[in-house]
Amino acid sequence: MRFISIFFILWSLLLTGIFHPNFSPPGLIQAIQLKAFIYEKRKKRIQLQKENISLKKKIQVFKTNPSVQEKEIRERLNYTSKDELIFYFR
Question: How many domains does the chain have?
Answer without folding.
Answer: 1
